Amino acid sequence: KEADIPIFEYDPKKAKKMLKEAGWEDTDGDGILDKDGKKFSFTIKTNQGNKVREDAAVVIQQQLKEIGIEAKPQIVEFSALIEQTSAPNWNYDALLLGWSLATFPDQYDIFHSSQSKAGLNNIWYKNEEVDKLLVNAKKLKDRKEYSKAYEKIYKMIAEDQPYTFLFYYNYHRAIPKNLQGFEFHPKNDFYEVNKWWLKK
Questions:
Q1: Domain identity same for 91 and 135
Q2: Cβ neighbours around 58 below 10 Å, total
Q3: Of 87, 155, 92, nearest to 118 (Cα)?
Q4: Deepest of 8, 111, 126, 154, by most Cβ within 10 A of its Cβ?
Q5: Contacts of 24 (CB under 8 A, 6+ apart)
Q6: Are 78 and 132 in the same domain?
Q7: CA-to-CA distance for 75 and 53, rounded, in angstroms?
Q8: What's the pLDDT at 3?
Q9: Which residue range is the domain that position 16 belongs to?
């Protein structure tokens, strides 16, 4: 159920309190928290040419600055970014990217611990229970059963927070009344465009 999935509200006061309880304080007055002589500072990498991600990195930087964390956006050409953030390099502190999933979304490659060394689990997420659930879900063919299995998976991922999920795009499509042969596809704006025609 949606109600069972934890939601983490934007709460700078609570964040500051939790950071202080964890031993992070601004001991030298420069506005950046530190602990054991180490600044709470890191780089956020994202890909060049995606204005939404570039803007999001700046917003994240501003919001983290409010609670004493220094996040430095670094915009990298896409192929270089993928090379830097994949096996065997894993050259990044934090990463701002997005996914596009299948309509029957198998997320084994993204979250199963076996996919860390050479797969898409480049955050090295490991939860043995999630691993088991992901393997079991692969055996399911019924969409309702599959959806139920993934409810458990998503709940555990939300609790563990290997990612902070920021937003989903809200797409709008305007189609002329006389367009024939158009078939909606959730992932491809020009699905079977060769079959489209305009009725006069």
A1: no
A2: 13
A3: 87
A4: 111
A5: 33, 34, 35, 40, 68
A6: no
A7: 9
A8: 54
A9: 8-98
- Tokens representing residue 145 in the block: 């059963």
Q: Model confidence over 97-133: pLDDT tens digits?
A: 988 777 778 999 999 999 998 888 988 999 999 999 9
Query: Strands 41-47 and 94-96, how do they pair?
Result: parallel
Q: Which residue has the tokens 């050259």?
A: 91
Domain count, the chain: 2
Looking at the fold, whether 110 and 198 belong to one and the same domain comes out as yes
**Residue 172 and residue 86 share a domain:** no
Q: Kindly give, in sequence order, each residue whose CB lies less than 8 Å from that of residue 29, ignoring residues fewer than 6 positions away.
A: none
* Distances from the Cα of 57 to the Cα of 29, 63, 88, angstroms: 25, 10, 25
Last residue of a domain, one of 63, 98, 133: 98
In a domain, 3, yes or no: no
Same domain, 151 and 67: no
Query: pTM for the full model?
Result: 0.81
